[in-house]
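Data deposition worksheet. Section B asks for the primary sequence of the deposited chain exactly as it was used as input, without tags or linkers unless they were present during the calculation. Section C holds the resulting structure in token form. Section D is free text for depositor observations; keep each observation to a single sentence. Incomplete worksheets are returned to the depositor.
Section A, Depositor: J.P.
Section B:
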Amino acid sequence: MALHLRDLPDLVCTSLGRAKCAAAWNYASFPLFAPVAALYRRLVVRKTRIIAVVGSQGKTTAQSAVCAVLGLPDNGRDNRNSWSDVAWRLLRVRPRTPRAVFEVGIAKPGQMRHYARILRPQVTVVTTIGSDHNRSLPSLEVTRWEKAAMVRALSAEGLAVLNGDDPNVVWMKGETKARTIFYGFGAANDVRAEEFAVDWPHGARFTLHAGGQRRQVRSRLHGRHMVYPLLAAIAVAIAEGVDLDAAVSALESLKPVAGRMEMLLLQNGARLLCDDYKASQESFFSALDAFEQIPARRRIVVLGDVGEPVGSKHRLYREIGKRVGCMASRAILIGSSRMRDTARGAISSGMSPDAITGGSDVGVLKAAELLRAELCEGDVVLIKGRTTDRLRRVILALQGRQVRCDIRLCQVGDMECDACNRLESG
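Section C:
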């Protein structure tokens, strides 16, 4: 992000400007702080066991789950997982700290190896390999190679905790001499789940098999795909000598991360299932899979665009529409002209055209207005879209916040809508 010094006085006067300055500084200062952080790791916190969490989806929830089972404060829900933020988080680790957990994200080739050299982890957790950032990471093979740099950084005494249900993650076993623990639903995994069941509105239930033991788990997270971060955390807990019952208890208290299958109850008795943080095509279908299993008086979807779709966009959006038409009674479509394909797909699956609202005049304010007028007790609304769609504004409006901002595409970055000065001023 290029900024000019002459613009700084104006930028620092607004929350949006300060966010842009922070993002630019985070990237530009990495060459300065990276060697300092690497030296700090080697000399000051060399005895701290570092657990790195990498992957295309589920990193933040996995990091939170690992922190929970290890009894560590969860300081990573702000999604600051790249460039100088990684270095700064390491520099904030105090000497003689037994363990520290880092979520690490990349957006282009070459990034992960820099972070691996800085962190030198003892444990690496890998969640999934997906289509995120496919413009700079053009194939799953490229993505897995780049993310595997954190696995290659492990010594022979280290531990790789790998998703055994994802072939591109299983592949990473051949990239390290470290010990490997696989997790997932498959019978061959070392830590596995079975008998998954929806427990609405609380979350989900499943049977855990780990270390030759069996436990019943009642999670507050929604969706089968949200079991994977919990299994990864159990694998880390076992490796780190944590009692299994204590680890399960910690995970049963774990709340969803904001914007990741987060359930919110409105005053009128309707519920929102908010998955508005990011929207790769894999996460779109995972959210729809979970939503389809939820018992509700009416299922309503509010959809934004897919982030960096792969292949035919027409086919993808139409397939999303077909899924929606099979499970929902109402659809509000906010996004690009591709939403016409979503509408066509929904109609082809049996949804009435009268139940679909979309078009150039439908933004977040219109969506909130429609939902306020229509929602009743027992209704459940899935809100799913890209970060840049800022569908969080719909949620805030339904919760009673004054929302006037109706920007279609917001590139502010890590700033949350409720902290932005434009939310109420427009």
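Section D:
The mean pLDDT is 95.
Residues 313-327 form the longest helix (15 residues).
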